Amino acid sequence: MGEFELIRHYFFPIAEAGHTSAVVLGPGDDCAIQQIEPGRDLVFSVDALVEGVHFPPHYDPEKLGWRCLAVAASDLAAMGADPVCFTLALTLPDADPDWLHGFARGLASAAKHFGLALAGGDTTRGPLTLSLQVHGTVPRGQAIRRSGARAGDYICVSGTLGGAGAALDYLGSDNPGADEQALLVRYHYPEARLDLGVALRGYASAAVDISDGLVADLGHILAASGVAASIDATRLPVSAALKRLAGEDAVNHAMNAGDDYELCITISPQAWESLPEDIRGRLTIIGEVKSGEGLAITHNGQSQALAAGGYDHFRT
Ligand code: ADP
Ligand code: MG
User: What number of other Cβ atoms are within 10 A of residue 276's Cβ?
Assistant: First the structure.
């Protein structure tokens, strides 16, 4: 199968299935065309995933298809953007039909689930690498940035933390138990919190998605906003499965492990009170923004030394 047949066979059907009127022209021409409604901003981001760095060697292609789009979509969620479309630059060592079939299946289900239409891409030969550009839109000026946190704001996170990172220990496990399975699902099938991000538009003062660990990613908000924060380790939401498996260590996973793709936001107490009940129910208050700089971690009110954490590709 030649390059163009491959693209037509595996990827054009995904584009057709996800067709949306905002993508005026999908794959097949030199560029795709996206129509932006008047009064909206285009919000876009690109993410690269390299085999052996962002996913294990010989990783299941169907899971990779889901995961690559979920992690890219998560950046749109953090900005409060409505998802629209994406492009995929795929570098493959060879055109293995089984691999492509599995990958396309995972990608198609993620595209449908996240409401992102495949608008185009590029297919080349080389070490397995995926780059996905995702496009979303927001009403003009309403994207949630990292720089809006103010002293006195609450710090909140969605869902539970630490599970996906803790699952790395079980990736090679032949016969994982129910708790291990629950964590593995968090790693293999991350959810981008797109609907939550949209619901937080106009309420959250800042937001980031947790890809590298809470401490690292909250740190980006603090740096961009020029503020400090304190968080209470005992308040971090942790799943029952992680508690059973990791015991006391669960809180360290929740603090430092990456790959959860939950949202960390800041929000003023007034905005918190006016948030719809169901949205508040999806968030846990874990701390408070302060003036100054740095992140203080308390444990039942006692201050605690901060373990350096979070994933940084260039840290030596
Ligand atoms: P060009 O050479 O003009 O960059 P290509 O020959 O690389 O175009 O691609 C032909 C068409 O197929 C383009 O419209 C491109 O968007 C689309 N395409 C290529 N690879 C993919 C892919 N993996 N998924 C979806 N569309 C793709
Ligand atoms: Mg061209």
Answer: 9
DSSP 13-82: HHHHHT--TTEEE-BTBSS-EE---TTEEEEEEEEEEEBTTTB-TT--HHHHHHHHHHHHHHHHHHHTPE
The more confidently predicted of residues 307 and 213 is 213
Tens digits of residue pLDDT in 130-183: 999 999 999 999 999 999 999 999 999 999 999 999 999 999 899 999 999 999
214: Cα separation from own chain's centroid: 12
Q: Residues 246, 249, 253, CA angle at the centre, nearest 5°?
A: 90
Mutate to test the pocket of ligand 1, among 92, 122, 125, 130 (most ligand atoms within 8 A of CB): 122
The domains located in the chain, with CATH, are 3-139 (3.30.1330.10), 146-306 (3.90.650.10)
Residue nearest to atom 12 of ligand 1 (CA): 28
| Ligand nearest to C-alpha 31 | 1
Query: Which residue's alpha carbon is at the smallest distance from atom 11 of ligand 1?
Result: 28
pTM: 0.94
Beta carbon of 118 within 6 Å of any ligand 1 atom: yes
| Rounded Cα–Cα distance for residues 217 and 127 (Å) | 29
pLDDT digits (tens, 9 = 90+) for 197-227: 999 999 999 999 999 999 999 999 999 999 9
